[in-house]
């Protein structure tokens, strides 16, 4: 599935704008094909639209089950089933997955990369606990604020990117505009203290989620397969969430029953597709630029969901649309320093 997505991305982008880094006198024999960063930003915006879809589904599951923890277990469980089928169907991925214990013991990459799934678990838990109350747009933009701050710091510290990306005016301004967009979209429903208390949850999740693509990418490089990395991500998240839910059930704090509507199991598959695309794109964009571009997609998707399916989201206000536009402007400003940067096509396959 991921190879198909990669091939499709390559073919589409080749047709639009493929350039050469160093023209060669011998029929460009050693020329490296590259992709202009703005095209990767567009791909990230489209991938970002998957996130509000997942939030809407998980929010409704949480509303039905009346428990964010139970909703998160359903979401991670459905995603894990899909990934298990994909992994077990291929000899190469079965072998790569079986190598994980040895690679963890070898300590070739920092141990925290192996638990990046906890970040996703926090996001999915917050979706089930607050998305149906806050509305999809409000939830997503609060989440985004945390992700932007996290991405800015991770890029500066060189976490998950080939080299440190220093602060400059466009990057800081882009991050500030993303936060302004968050405030604009949240403002119509800013009814303290309930909304403020609920909004803290996705904000904290965003602080963790801003680093998650770097962890997933590191595991993918170590195992040689992004599919294996995503599966491991779901296993970690499911074990953490499932363990907490099991303890709560044994203590009598919660009762658990599976939802009957088929679409309520789409949260996991939507999440894994989002993780795959973000892990694929982070190497070419850096965490901050990835976060800002996905911000635009998330806000556009959130507004569309709240507008077209009001029973899943909330009323769309003028400031909601303005906030989405501000986020788009912020993403554009932040990408200015990298607008002439090129990323090798081959890097997207690793």
Q: What is the CA-CA span between the terminal residues?
A: 15 Å
Summed up, the helix count is 15
The rounded Rg comes to: 20 Å
Unreliable stretches covering 5 or more consecutive residues? 4-33, 342-350
What spatial form do the alpha-carbon principal axes imply? globular
Number of spatially distinct domains: 1
**Mean pLDDT, as a whole number?**
77
Specify the structural class.
mainly alpha
| Number of DSSP strand runs | 3
Order of helices and strands: HEEHHHHHHHHHHHHHHE
Helix content: over 70%
Strand order of the largest sheet: 1-2-3
Profile the largest sheet.
3 strands, antiparallel
Secondary structure topology:
Blueprint: H1 2-16, E1 18-20, E2 33-36, H2 37-48, H3 50-65, H4 68-88, H5 91-98, H6 100-106, H7 117-134, H8 136-157, H9 169-186, H10 194-209, H11 212-223, H12 226-250, H13 267-285, H14 287-308, H15 318-334, E3 342-344
Antiparallel strand pairs: 1-2, 2-3
Helix pairs in contact: 2-13, 2-14, 3-4, 3-7, 3-8, 3-13, 3-14, 4-7, 4-12, 4-13, 5-12, 7-8, 7-10, 7-12, 8-9, 8-10, 8-14, 9-14, 9-15, 11-12, 11-13, 12-13, 13-14, 14-15
GO cellular component, one term: plasma membrane
Keywords: Membrane, Transmembrane, Transmembrane helix
Protein name: Inner membrane protein
